[in-house]
Write a structure and sequence with these properties.
This is Purple acid phosphatase. This protein is of the alpha+beta class and 465 residues long. The protein has nine helices and 28 strands. Helix 3 packs parallel to helix 4. The structure holds fe (ii) ion.
């Protein structure tokens, strides 16, 4: 009961909360007391491939909780995470689910999840995972704690594949060196995780391990996760306060993060758009009630509302579906919803570029003042989809007035949330080993945008017809 109070949706990790979606929940829980296919009176029988791999962390929704997820290709029975400060003094048994890929081979993977509890802020931990049939290397992480200079620093990006993952080495390095506290991967993994009966997904999860085994690796779904009802994405990752990783939220320090699926808007399952929409409203209401303690509201979604890329993606259209809602009815348009509830920042990807936007609402661009990022009267959008994949980078054509800075260099972004008022963004151009863009966002107040804000926006802004 105490555990449920500190982490009310811990139960979700173990698969017994009802899914809130039209999508079938494809995580298949295995009972603790299950009979294992290779276990028999024949003592010579054991699992094939019981070695744990693809170890990765995710934030448990509270700094005292660190989730670890890993994979084996056979059922190993009981599995554990062992962890501690200098010795492995704590053991938590994993929950195991069976994941059957939708490809021709119907290949099977066993996903192990455990929540390390009692994590002390700022303390360096060691841990390893596995079972009597194989244990992992020893990894380390540091309990989440505000930095000496203030706040938390996030690495964020999207659209990173197995092939041509140009920012991968830099992301691994900053993760291990303590230069970031959390990774935010805003959709599109591996290209694609389902390819070759899921072996692309395995390779992707192995290649992010040098980052994700050291800092929490937080995710939202993109269009490249679409196969088999997003089942690779749902099964391979473990986000807090959700049982399918499709939409969820968490607080860390002065920021409330909302991860959601833009992909529902491009599927035929309207129920999922509705379910997510209702959840978003409730979550945004709750976040606003708590704004005194957690002032920043930051959304993470894969496909952006605005962009300047030379392509025909949704963000290029005046009536972007993500921005304005479904064609014809304009139902479920996210821009108005986010404006109504005072969302400060939107993190996006999908375009294989970096683009920083001026504050903008309803195609009115706030670019007519000396410092538009000081108390902006509208949301700030940051696009970072140039981590690298086999589709290469995108280029720009006729950038809109919303485009404050843009680059087709491979890279990733960092966002340092110092406190209730100051955030520092940097774009890291990994090919040239330099910071190519940086900006301070300063907000003295965080609340739903007011009539005064709208007036201010119109007075100093430019409407883009
Ligand atoms: Fe995408």
């Amino acid at each position: 009961m105490i555990l449920r109070l500190i982490f009310p949706c811990l139960a979700l990790l173990f698969g017994f909360c009802a899914p809130g979606l039209g999508y079938h929940n494809p995580r298949e829980p295995l009972p603790v007391s299950r009979s294992i296919h290779w276990r028999s009176d024949d003592r010579n029988r054991g699992p094939f491939y019981g070695q744990p791999e693809q170890i990765h962390l995710s934030y448990g929704g509270d700094p005292s909780l660190q989730i670890v997820t890993w994979l084996t290709f056979d059922d190993t029975g009981e599995s554990y995470v062992d962890y501690g400060l200098t010795k492995l003094t704590q053991r938590i048994r994993a929950n195991v689910t069976k994941f059957v890929d939708g490809g021709a081979k119907k290949s099977i993977r066993y996903i192990h999840r455990a929540v390390m509890t009692g994590i002390k802020p700022g303390k360096a931990y060691i841990y390893r995972v596995g079972s009597e049939y194989g244990i992992s290397n020893m990894f380390t992480f540091t309990g989440l704690k505000e930095r000496p200079e203030g706040g938390y620093r996030y690495g964020f990006f999207g659209d990173m594949g197995n092939i041509n993952a140009r920012a991968l080495g830099a992301i691994q390095k900053v993760s291990q060196d303590g230069e970031i506290d959390v990774v935010l991967h805003v959709g599109d993994f591996a290209y694609n995780m389902d390819v070759n009966d899921g072996s692309f997904g395995d390779e992707f999860m192995r290649q992010i391990e040098p980052s994700a085994a050291y800092v929490p690796y937080m995710t939202v779904p993109g269009n490249h996760e679409y196969a088999y009802n997003f089942s690779h994405y749902v099964n391979r990752f473990t986000m807090p306060n959700t049982n399918d990783n499709l939409f969820y939220s968490f607080d860390l320090g002065p920021a409330h993060f909302i991860g959601f699926s833009t992909e529902f808007y491009f599927s035929s399952v309207l129920e999922s758009v509705q379910t997510q929409w209702n959840w978003l409203i409730q979550d945004l209401k709750k976040a606003n009630e708590n704004r005194k303690n957690v002032p920043w509201i930051i959304t993470m979604g894969h496909r952006p509302m605005y962009c300047s890329t030379d392509d025909s993606d949704d963000c290029k259209f005046k009536e972007s579906i993500i921005r304005k809602g479904l064609h014809g009815t304009h139902a479920y348009g996210l821009e108005k919803l986010f404006h109504t509830y005072g969302v400060d920042i939107g993190l996006w990807a999908h375009e294989h570029t970096y683009e920083r936007l001026f504050p903008v609402y309803d195609r009115v661009v706030y670019n007519g003042t000396g410092n538009p990022y000081h108390n902006p009267p509208a949301m700030v959008h940051m696009l970072a989809g140039s981590a690298g994949c086999q589709e290469y980078v995108d280029h720009f054509k006729n950038p809109g007035p919303w485009s404050a800075f843009r680059s087709s260099n491979y890279g990733f972004s960092t966002m340092h949330i110092y406190n209730h008022t100051h955030i520092h963004f940097q774009q890291h151009d990994v090919s040239h080993d330099r910071v190519e863009d940086s900006i301070w966002l300063v907000k003295d107040k965080h609340e739903p945008y007011s009539k005064m804000d709208d007036h201010h926006l119109l007075k100093h802004g430019v409407y883009v017809p």
